[in-house]
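Researcher: I'm preparing a figure for a lab meeting and need a structural model of a single chain. I don't have an experimental structure, so a prediction will have to do for now. The sequence is pasted below. Please return the structure as tokens so I can convert it later.
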Amino acid sequence: MTAVDDRLITDAVQAFEDLEVPEGFKAELLRGDIVMMAGPDWVHNLIVLHVQKQIPLDKWYPVQTQDIAIPGEPSEPQPDLVVVEHGAFDGPGRLVPAPAITLLVEVVSKNSSVADYGIKRSMYAAGQVPAYLIIDPFEAECLLLTEPAGTGEDADYKVERRTQFGEPVPLPVLDLKLETGEFGTLPKFKRYRRQ
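Model: Understood. Here is the structure written out token by token.
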């Protein structure tokens, strides 16, 4: 990186930290861009709750509204659920470092689809997060991504596993099978893909 790149990253992080987020919204810093979204809908929140209640608290901390830090990235995403093994991060602080995280979960919304399947996939792989679970209520399926490789925008996960709602999702990183039978669905919408 150049001195100009470093200054732009520092400016973006500072602007993000100074940002006053209106009630009912959430903000994330994604590769230097500040992204603000309205709060999630009921189906989204219940899916997160159903996932959270299946994760054993005696070994894991499944937390919501937790910002994470990805080394080398001008990013501070706030996944829908962050799963950290006891002792991997003891805080304090607003940012949990990506290397301390075992699993990240994002539930797709109309506004987050491109980020969840694209930029966050690359960012989380760049952070070497062992597993990233995308839960899509519009497609009634889960996409589990494992084995992160690469750096920066070229980072990705080598292994993909799709599971339909109603079937259990094997989560070897947590040594459990996630039951998806209670996950709600939403009507499909036309997605726009970047070329």
